[in-house]
């Protein structure tokens, strides 16, 4: 048998095997392909950027998808969808979370703030202004999550919550190493980290003043 004949017969075997497995899976009544599970929609009520929202949703919908797909708040970005990049960070009851990692139905009655709820065109939040003044972004994809995370982070410092690099666990000081450590969950693909740190430092001084 030649090499060409051997390769051809191998392809025939693989093709016929794949076809047989597909046919068998379709024939099995308990297989994933044959089973379509139905989920009962649930009512959820949230306060998003100061506005009460009530809707009926699939219980599997993430908070991120509710914000983007149902409410049109596309400032919150879907990056990795695994809680690893921080692009989807929002504030829930004042604390920062990755909205891709939580189900919307778990936040019944909660107050959610996205980047759209932080300021307006004529009255930006101090962190928004600082990011612009310090060129704290390039492509801007991660910026909404960076800003929301920074707001939550500054509140954590104000409450006296230490980080892994805090010299004084009882009275942490917002140094540049503290900012980097506390913001380490928010990734910037463009590498604008020095300007992001500068923007947060400037806004923190303005907000404290």
Automatic annotation (TrEMBL):
Q: For this UniProt entry, which residues form the secretion signal?
A: none
Gene Ontology MF annotations: 2 iron, 2 sulfur cluster binding; metal ion binding; oxidoreductase activity, acting on the aldehyde or oxo group of donors
Q: Which residues form the 2Fe-2S ferredoxin-type domain?
A: 42-118
Name the UniProt key words of this record, in alphabetical order.
2Fe-2S, Iron, Iron-sulfur, Metal-binding, Oxidoreductase
Look up the domain of life of the source: Bacteria
InterPro entries (UniProt xref): 2Fe-2S-bd, 2Fe-2S-bd_dom_sf, 2Fe-2S_ferredoxin-like_sf, 2Fe-2S_ferredoxin-type, 2Fe2S_fd_BS, Aldehyde_Oxdr_Iron-Sulfur, Beta-grasp_dom_sf, TAT_signal
State the protein's name.
Xanthine dehydrogenase YagT iron-sulfur-binding subunit
Naturally occurring in which organism (per UniProt)? Sphingomonas prati
The upper taxonomy is: Bacteria, Pseudomonadati, Pseudomonadota, Alphaproteobacteria, Sphingomonadales
């Amino acid at each position: 048998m030649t090499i060409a004949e051997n390769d051809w017969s191998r392809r025939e075997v693989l093709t016929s095997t794949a076809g047989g497995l597909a046919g068998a899976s379709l024939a099995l009544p308990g297989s994933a392909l044959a089973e379509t599970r139905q989920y009962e929609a649930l009512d959820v009520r949230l306060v998003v950027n100061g506005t009460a929202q009530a809707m009926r949703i699939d219980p599997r919908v993430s908070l991120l998808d509710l914000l983007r797909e149902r409410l049109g708040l596309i400032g919150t970005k879907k990056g990795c969808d695994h809680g690893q990049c921080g692009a989807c960070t929002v504030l829930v009851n004042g604390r920062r979370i990755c909205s891709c990692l939580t189900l919307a139905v778990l936040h019944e009655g909660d107050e959610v703030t996205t980047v759209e709820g932080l300021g307006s065109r004529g009255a930006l939040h101090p962190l928004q202004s600082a990011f612009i003044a310090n060129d704290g972004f390039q492509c801007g994809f991660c910026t909404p999550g960076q800003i929301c995370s920074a707001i939550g982070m500054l509140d954590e410092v104000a409450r006296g919550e230490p980080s892994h690099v805090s010299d004084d666990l009882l009275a942490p000081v917002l140094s540049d190493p503290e900012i980097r450590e506390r913001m380490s969950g928010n990734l910037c693909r463009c590498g604008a980290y020095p300007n992001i740190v500068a923007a947060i430092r400037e806004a923190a001084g303005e907000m404290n003043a």
